[in-house]
Amino acid sequence: MKTLFKILLAGAFASALIFAPSAQAAPKLVKVDKAKAAVIAAAEAGRPMTVSEIYKVFHGRSWIWDDGAGYFAVAKRSFTAWSGRGDGASYAKGTWFIASGGRLCFKATWYAMTGAGKSVTCFENRKNGKIMYQRRLPEGEWYVFSHTPPYSYDAIRKLKPGDHVARRLARNERYITKNMPEIDECAYYEVGKRFICNMFK
User: What is the dihedral of CA 127, 66, 60, 104, to 10 degrees?
Assistant: First the structure.
């Protein structure tokens, strides 16, 4: 930030304008969450979890979310999920895999009242001592996923053995199939092309 100062130099033959920066404003105080900073530092100082470690944690389990769940099946590494209900319902079918760098990913097609779309979601997992850390990629914040042994409030407690997805996935699939509005593909064309499109419906 620069402010123009006009300084008149008295002299017999010349005068000049000198530009000088204004005094710097006092730095703003930033509140630091020490607990969060400690978690980030510990996670980044840890090591990426191995394929076998991640597989042991997630295989054959359902990850219970606030309004849904995802199931990491052993057979064919299939991944299924559901979320919401009614007009806000959705469900997913795909696969899950473990990649280098401690990444757990699921690649699936999500179905909702607005249509369907493919997505890949990944979580990075690291270990530091007896604590497992996790964050959603690419920009999620690190958090403690589990202690060894797990504490009652650890996120790993949301992993439940078995398939806790199939029943509600089927419910959402039935609702969407029955109630999803028909999409008029011709509506996206210009008037002339729309007329031709409707002829071949």
Answer: -40
